[in-house]
Amino acid sequence: MSRVPAHATTATDPAARGHELGTACREAIHETYAGYARLFAAHGLHPHHVRDHGRAAFAAIDAWAPHLAEEITGLAEGSGLSVWKVAALNARTEILAAAAVTGEGECSTSVVLPGGGAPPRTVQTWDWHDTLRGGMLAWTYTTSEGRRVATFTECGVLAKIGVNDAGLGLHFNVLRHLSDSAGIGVPVHAVARRVLDEAVTVDDAARIARSARLSASTVLTVVTRDEARCLELCPAGIGEVYPDDGFLLHTNHFLAPELAGGERTTAASGSSTFERDAWLRERAATALRADDLTARAHALCAHREDGAPVCAHADLALPEHQRWESLATISLDVVAGDLHVHRGGPCEVEERTWLTLTAGQAAFA
């Protein structure tokens, strides 16, 4: 099985870093945008809506984190894609939320703090549309302040899941809330990027998240050697979920009581989030505590016939915009600063299929 493409940028200036990555990944960025353009259209979004949303997202990013707007401009110049299109890629969660899109699938994340000085044990699936599997990227870079970061993301998107050299890791799952709106705010992927670039503690990550005006929801599961917390982000506020006996699990519905009342995802809408959550808590909790990352990945091997599609496979009989697949399986080692990525679902993981990036050092195993 082929691995997720990997790239390491050397430029530390935001615009130069964006230009370097945009040039290196030019074709993949164009293909990724084309895939999202089809997805947006399938959900009834006219190209001029996407253009307006992209411009609004760029303005929100520029106001909140001007250096990230500079990087997006560099990405656009390097790739030959319009600035608003690169911004729309980064705001794909916000654009889909503006169209009130719901989905059957999405990601499952587990973090275990075993105690006794042992490092945290993390694993998640990244579930998305199978037609967008070609846009995956494992990327290492260094910020202008010297922070080294390794992230799994999509081509042209600032960041998603990752770890930095300060020993902070970040997992990422989408959520949907009644407060989500079409008034495009700071993209949640930009929030994830600033957390990876700047945060050393979980409190740092929460402070960064609270500073952004949001229009869409997500959950950032932040982990350091000694602490883990789910930060549930939505326009109505930020909820925080703490480990239970060292075990922290999240799928795609709100758990914080102050936000759960605004939950927009329901079992009636076809989402599997509740089944996946129950299956993992009841049948996989012990296995998710395993020290070996391959064993943890195998703990996620539940398919629809098992009662919950934790490991999802696309139903090719469905239209493209209704198909879901576990495109990647990811684990973080916050002590070593390692990002481990397997291309595909947990049922295909073997020890030899992991790609390992060490934060900022472009050390590929």
UniProtKB/TrEMBL annotation:
Residues 160-272 form the Peptidase C45 hydrolase domain. Pfam families: AAT (PF03417). InterPro entries: C45_proenzyme-like, Peptidase_C45, Peptidase_C45_hydrolase. This is Peptidase C45.
